Each structure stands twice: as structure tokens, then as C-alpha cells.
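Fold this complex.
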Amino acid sequence: MSSRASAVSNQEIPGREVTMVDALRAALREEMRRDKRVILLGEDIGVEGGFGGAFTVTLGLSEEFGHHRVLDTPISEAAIAGVAAGAALAGLRPVADVQYGDFLFLAMDQLANNAAKLRYMSGGKLSVSMVFRAPVGATTRGAQHGQSLEAFFMHVPGLKVACPSNPYDGKGLLKTAIRDDNPVIFFEHKLLYGSKGARKEKGGLQVVGWVPDEEYLIPFGEAKIVRPGRDITLVANLLMVHKSMQAAEILAAEGVDAEVIDVRTLTPFDWETVFQSVRKTTRLLIVEEDNLTGGWGAEVAARVADDCIGYLDGPIRRIAAPDTPVPFAPVMENFYVPSVEKIVGAVRELVKVHN
Amino acid sequence: MSETKERKLFMYHRMLMCRMFEERVYYLFLEGRLPGTIHQSQGQEASAVGVCSALEDKDMITSTHRPHSHAIARGVSVRSLMAELFARETGCCRGKGGSMHVGDMEAGMVPAIAIVGGGIPLAAGCALAFRYLEQPNIVACFFGEGATNIGTFHEAVNMAAIWNLPVVFVCENNKYAASTAVEKVMRVKRVSERAMAYGIPGETLDGNDVEAVYQAMRKAGSRARAGDGPTLLELETYRFAGHSRSDPGRYREPEEVAAWKQRDPIARYEAKLLAERVLEPAEITKIKTSIERELEAAVAQAESDPSPKPEDCLSDVFAS
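Structure:
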């Protein structure tokens, strides 16, 4: 399937259709050309004859920028994160990555105790301008290569969290992340990288998005209404934006007009866009791939309840993964990951019962 | 005054400042005038001062939960340190750091990292930036022997080694990780043996001999600055105080403590400088009096300095 979530295509401006991988690589390339302080750190990211990182995002960059700017590291996630933070303190703008988001736990102390807190602990004197890219999402790799971890990092003061759903946002947000003076955890969904090429994912969406040739940035903290609607608000991120859009199309045929909001960044979070939407539609369904308990959706539910409860014509509902590790068997994984059918079903209930 | 004599007197003065600062802070705690906890470094002054005296302007250090002497040795202002311990807005971290996070990058010290081993990757990262930016600077990375058992030591030393980063890893082996004796948690006899695992030089030396520490650091620093990569220096030393303010140190034999006090780095250096006629007996009192006055002024200033406002808690989370 093809999804054009960017919705900014303008025939007047030159541009082209690209995949998420193309868009992220272009963002890295442009920022590295623009600013010598930008360096890349990660495992297998620049090896000749290698694969440009686990998902080819950095392919070709060591050839253009050299190994002093595209640093292949040992398998040392804590040091990757801490070295990136230290280099940031001393004036660089490192973009580090882990091959799978699950490995972030190995780097957790450096991210949560050092990168996130050094500005605060120094009384605002220091800044840690680094980006840490991390692929997430269940893709039949089981429990240690498929988690969705956004909520862990949303909970840490001092970290920004981005989670683009399409190439246009991916490029614009990554460029913004690199220029940001704060540590940014940048989540990428493995099924959104594209379904073609050397590292294609079974079941991957061929998400192609129009991206202008000219430079653009997307500010953090601005959610996007990817489908305006009147009857219910669906709030989602990453892959779940696409599933919510598919659900919205099915619901439209039934006369239910769903508004779909792509949060784009979790920290900072664009509460106002969500609140305004809920006040208009009076119903809210949050869709996330994270485990239900303590997921970012719980925070959205709490804030909406706090701010908009008088506007609501029904309970706030969440569709999330159950509170289990990610299973391997495709039949179980399909049950685990929120599906279009589950979203449609939940919306039908909310609209029917409380109409 | 010759450069050597000047340096020796400087190191003596700095060590005394470290000691007298810690003693002053100890009594301030006993009197209930300071909040929080403290990890004191009496007895370890030679490693802090020997290492930092061998650094150049714009070189950087990283430190630990026991950072006071490192900060003083690196030249972080005593007033800003004292004010931080008093939780004042004028503190080096504006009251947001406290004892375990003192530092000032303008003075060449990353705010201290109080998770054991947590600062080692930061040191390697700063060193990476120095080399990348073609700055002729190095990083001295302080940690205790206990930190060499944590994963970040392995990961960051290895990374610094394979990339020949300009960093010197300074292990202050004070024999105890909190209350746990080093022999219980390490099969090797010397921490410096661990350098072999990374293909870098490792050296164990008397960490209470400030001159020896200084010379070893000059050598390791020159090597790092020349692009030849890191060195692991193991400085054998001892903390006279407990691990933290609540620790009476019952896990150490009194004889052991007494024996190490015989090797007091400051008394030893003082005797050496007197013998070399670098220092005259009459000067000692003068130096101590001047330090006493400086500390007195720092305490008085800190006590009268403004406290942060409660709601200042909300700022400095993000750079805007």
C-alpha cells in the first residue's frame, strides 16, 4: 500500500516521492554538509561493503564524509551514548544510533542520568546537543528486537522524543533534532522504512512521501491533523498513524467521520491540538503500539480528562499492545499489535454507545 | 622564583586547600549547616592535585561522587563550591547540583557524575570532540577502583583505545568501594593490569606522592596530546574519612588507617619541600592562615548569598 501522510505536496514546489530511509539519510547528509560539528556514531554504520546501519539509513555517508565523521563503534551501547553526550558537551552535534530500540536499555544510564540531566545539574550552563536514533516496532523478531519504547523516554525530564510517521516528517524532524541543543531520542518504526531494498521488512508499508527539494524544518511540539473529522479523535504515532488512517477510511464508509492526529513528537507534546480536537469531536481513542500500562497514551488520557472532561460524550479509550513481551509467532504478534480491526471496533463502540 | 619551585609551592598550596576545605565542610555538616550528604577526599589530595597541575588551560576533567578535591585542584572557585554546598543560587551549579555534581566547564571540569563509572564515557566523548575539532587538549578522567568493575569502564576505555583518544584514565585506588575491600571484588593485584586488555599502557604508582603523580600525568598527558592514545594510571591512595558522612568506617582496621595516615600526602610533601628549601617553616603558617581566611570568606559569603527560589526548580530542564 502507499500512504501519503505528508499531505503537503504542492505541484508548484519541486520535490519527489521518497521512502523514510531516503528521507532520513537526506536529513543526515544535509546537516552534515551544513555543519561540520555533526558526526555519526553507531554499530555497522560506515563499514565499506557493510549495510549502512541495521536499516541502511547511513549507507554511503562514510564515503562522502569520511570515517572521522561516520564512526563505526564496537558493540558498546553505553559508551556510544556516553561518548555522544561527552562530545556534545565539548561542542559537537553527534547523531548516534542503536540497531534496535531495545538496546537503548544498555545505554539507559548515560541517556537518563547524564545526557538528560547535565543541563539541569549544571544550573543551565551546559547543553547536550545530541540525537539518538532508535528503530522500534514489532516485526516478527520477538521480545528483544520489537519493543516500542517511547514512554520510557517521555518520562525522563530533559529528553526530547520524536516519532515520525512518514518521510516528510522524518526528514524535517530529524533536521530539527540535530539542530536542537537538547538530547533527542528519535524513534523510527521498522515497518515504515520501506518495503523495498536490501533490508525490506515483511509486512512493511511502502510509505512513500513527497519531500520538497528545498530545505525545510519541522518544529517539535506541533502535532499534525492528518485527517480532519467531526465524530471522534484518534491520536496516534509512528505505524499507528497509518492504521488509524486505514480505520478512518473504513469508518467513513459507515458514516463515521474520524479526525486523526499524528503527535509527531511526544516531548514536547502539542496538547492544544489534541484538546481542541477533543472539544470538537467529544470522543477520544488513543492508538499506540507500546504496552498499555504506563504507555504514552495513559498520559494523553489523563491530560485530556483533566482539561476536556466536560466536553467528552464518552469514556477515553486506548488501543495498545497488551502487557506482555512482544511474541514471536506471527499469529500471536498480529494479535499483539493493535490492528485496524481493533481500532474500527473501538470507534464503533464509542460512537454507538454514546451517540 | 623558578618555574619548578613555583609549581611545587602551587601544588602544596592546592593540596592544603583541598584538605582544609574538606575539614571545614566536615564541621559545617556536623553543625547542621549544610543539607544533603558528602563524600570526602581527605588523604586523596595528591592524586587530584598531581593530575590537575599537569593539565593545560582548556583541558577537561571528569569526576565522581567524591569530587571536592578534583574541583579545587582543577581551579573551580572555592566560593562557588562552598556556595553550591550551601545550596545557594551563587553555587557553581546554581543550587541544582549539590556536592555530588560540582563542576564548571569554564574552569575545565564537567559537572561530577555520581553514578560510579558514569563519567568515563563522557570523558572519552570530550576527548573525541577535542581531537575532531583539532583542539590540542586532553581529558583527565577520574574514577575509583570500584568503577573498573562496571561495564562503562570496559566500553569507554576500549573505545578510547581503538580511536587513540586524548584522554588519561586516572584510577584513584583507595582500596574500598564504599565498604567493600578491593581484594573481594577483583582478581588482579593491580588495576593497571587491566590496561593490557585494551592494548594501552598501564602504570601503578604511589598516589600519595604528588610529585610522582604529577610526573606520570605529564608523561601520559604528552602521549595523549601527541595522538598516541590513552593511558591508565592507577594511583594508590586512601581516604582518611568514611565513604560518606554517615560512615564510621568499621570495616577498616585501625592499624590500616593509622599506617596510611603515616603516608599523608600533604605531610610528606611538606617535609620534602622543607628539605629542599623550597618551603621555609615560617611560610607554612602564613599559607595556612591565608587559606583559612579564604575559606572563612567563602563560608560567610555562601551563608549570606541568596537561596534559589523554590520555583527555580522548574527551569533549566531544556535549552531553549
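Chain A has two domains: 18-212, 224-353.
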